[in-house]
Amino acid sequence: MPLHRHLSKGREVARTAGDHASDMFAPLAVIGRGLRHQAGWAKTRWQATPQERRGPTLFLTAATLIGIYLLPHGLLFALIALMASAAWAGRTPKAPPAPPAPDVADVKLSALYSALTPYLCGPEDANPLYHFEGSYKSAFSSWEFDGEGRLCRLELGYPAYFTDTEPTARARIEQVVQGKAGRAREYRFDWDEESNRLRITAMAPLPTDIVAQRFVAAPGEIVLGFTDEDGTARTIPVSQGGTTTQQPPVVWRTGPRSSEPHLLALGVTGHGTSSLLRSVALQALPYADLVVIDGAGTGEHACLVNRPGVHTVETSLHGALAALEWATHETDRRLAALNAARHAGTAPPADATRPLWLLLDHPTELSELAHAEGRPDPQDLLELPLRHGRAARVTVVIADDLEARDRITPTVRATTRARVLLGPAGPDEGHAALGAPLDIVPAAHAPIGRGYARIGNGAPVRLQVPATVDPLDDEAPPQLRDAVIALLPHRDSRTEAAPAAPPRPERAPTIPADGAPAAHPVDLGKTEPMIRSRPIS
């Protein structure tokens, strides 16, 4: 007889013997389980008995046992009763083990595979990669979940006939993936058109607790916000949550040697375009003069009124036109002065080299009002500062609503090559605002100041604007208001507390014998140089 048949027969004999043994010893197992339950019950009752009652309890137990021993056949009846109660207590079998929890990958990836199948399945494909009875393991090559069971990385393949070069087809797949993976996070989609692979990465949230402060940057460099570590090769120290950390900034370089001298910021209503404008103003004030135009007229920039270096803050159409006309003449004057100094071989005058910043918040509101009144469009007055501002040291920053993108003049759109988009926006809106397709799908609910930036011909990067609230807003947190107030050129009695009154002397001052008043030292020095602003002519 072959060896394997001997082994098979031996296994059958052993299995049969085990089954008979389990049937034979089943009553003993029940009684043993009941005795363990009774022993545990007795131990629990004994531990719950107070210390002063344990002695009487032991006495009554001993008396009961002696009585049972003295009765005729008492021990036999006691043993029978104990076995019967143990069998009754052990009659409940062991609870079956809980079924294993379903694998999160099988549940979520199967749902994602089923959702992608109608868009990636071709009716004429003989060997489809996606079909309604298929498995996700045939299309998904690698995946990763975090500790909370959320998808954080996925790589999948798609058929070659899928139109991955069309933005509409891409947007449809990205929307499906975000809907199944969770709309509360941002996802980066890396389309590899050569190998028909799509890599999806869930991006970590950017820090939102960085407040307005003095950033480590050279004159002419503006820190628009902060991004991911792979978005820039530079980090700067910032104060974050009471400690100093290193964060990667989004730096916009201005000045005569900048290829992107002007900035256009578009955003969804309530997502921080005015805060971005205040942040830029606070960073430019130490070395530049400002002209601020608040087209919305909401007083978001009233904290800059009468500040050193701020020429004017206009909210009306008449004031905005006068300020922009002055800026046009000032740009022309600067160009003439710089050209004359260049031809004469002398140093240019200081008033022609000091940077001038034009900050416009919602200028399209003033454009509509100007059209209704038959007056010049304020955006048309920006043509000279926009086209020749780099040579004249004039920088234009425009912030407006995303819905007003079509009302921005072509000159403004063509000359503002530094772009910022704040708030959640669709693929078409992101492409129109940044001038390039956005490979990041925004979250459904983005915090204030969250968006994307594109400087020149670079790739769009994520952006989180520092919290720069209006210090005149009573509803803003006090610590955020104090951070903005500390950056203003001088103290303002409208927003800062008045200095404490000097203490009253306990007694009247004494007059010297010669009758001359006591001399007190007088300090005429200034803690910081004051910037004298020039009035608009």
Commentary on this structure:
By secondary structure, the chain is of the alpha/beta class. It contains 14 helices and 17 strands. The protein has helices spanning 3-24, 26-48, 54-70, 74-89, 104-120, 167-181, 273-284, 317-344, 350-353, 363-373, 383-392, 410-415, 427-434, 478-487, and strands at residues 140-145, 151-157, 186-192, 197-203, 221-226, 236-240, 243-247, 249-253, 263-267, 289-294, 310-314, 356-361, 394-401, 418-422, 440-441, 450-455, 461-464. The strands form 4 sheets. Strands 11-10-12-13-9-14-16-17 form an 8-stranded mixed sheet, sandwiched between helices. A hairpin with a 4-residue loop joins β3 and β4 (197-203). The protein is elongated. The N and C termini lie far apart (117 Å).
Mean pLDDT: 83
Strand order of the largest sheet: 11-10-12-13-9-14-16-17
Question: What is the helix fraction of residues, given as a range?
Answer: 25-40%
Q: Radius of gyration, rounded?
A: 40 Å
Which structural class matches the secondary elements? alpha/beta
Largest sheet: 8 strands, mixed
- Give the number of helices: 14
From the spread of the alpha carbons, the general shape counts as: elongated
Looking at the chains present, what oligomeric state does this protein adopt?
Answer: single chain
Q: Calculate the terminal CA-CA distance, rounded to whole Å.
A: 117 Å
DSSP strand tally: 17
Please state roughly what percent of the residues sit in beta strands, choosing from under 5%, 5-15%, 15-25%, 25-35%, 35-45% or over 45%. Answer: 15-25%
Low-confidence stretches: 498-505, 507-537
